[in-house]
Structures are given as C-alpha cells and as structure tokens.
Amino acid sequence: MLKSEILNAPLLAALATCGHTDTVVIADCGLPLPHGPQVIDLALVQGVLSFEQVLDVLSRNLVIENSTLASEAENGPVQELCRTKGLDPQFISHEELKAQLPQAKVIVRTGEATPYANVILQCGVAF
Description:
The protein has 127 residues and is an alpha/beta fold. The protein is built from 4 helices and 6 strands. The chain is globular. The protein has helices at 9-16, 51-61, 77-84, 94-100; strands at residues 23-27, 38-41, 64-70, 90-92, 106-109, 119-123.
C-alpha cells in the first residue's frame, strides 16, 4: 500500500503524472471547466471541500514553483490563504486565468463559493 496522506485515488494518480512546469488548478465550484485537463471533482455541497482545505493538502504534497491568482482576488482572503502556505502569487485578470485552464494538467474542483477562489499552481522539482 502506498504511504500518502492523500486518500482520494483519482487525485493521487493525477498528481503523480505531474512534472516540472505542469500546472494544477484549484477551482471554486463556479469556475467553468474546459474540456481537456483531467478534472478531479471534490465538491460535495457548497463550501465542502473548501479551497483552503484543498490548498492545504496540495501545498504539503506538491513542489510549487509559482502560483497565479485572478487580479480580482488581490488583497482578499484567497491571496491571504496562499500567503499562509508560503506562496507569493502573481496576478492576471480572471479572463486570462480562465483562458489558461485548457493547458492545465489537472483541475481540482472544490465546493468553495468565495468569489475568485481559484489558483493555478505551477509544479517545480524537489532537487
């Protein structure tokens, strides 16, 4: 049995395919999801699982080289959550963020309903 804190098998399998510069998106429940990237849907009801819960787990289990938020999230709770996880996000417009979604390797959909609770995480390397 694999030793990992992540119990969701599809999520664990999807993350295992990520390499340097691949992107993983944590999405709120309202973000339009494009065809192409693998979507791991963790939304149960509004608010569950939360953006914060998913960010917490992924930030412990991925090497994150950089992160990107919508400029509409600047100086708000989503930026603060990212900072508490050691991320210093860059900002692009929400429209630009949505345009980058098709290039993501994995999109993790949460039940989060906070406006602009979406982040693009770029994978790094551990060496």
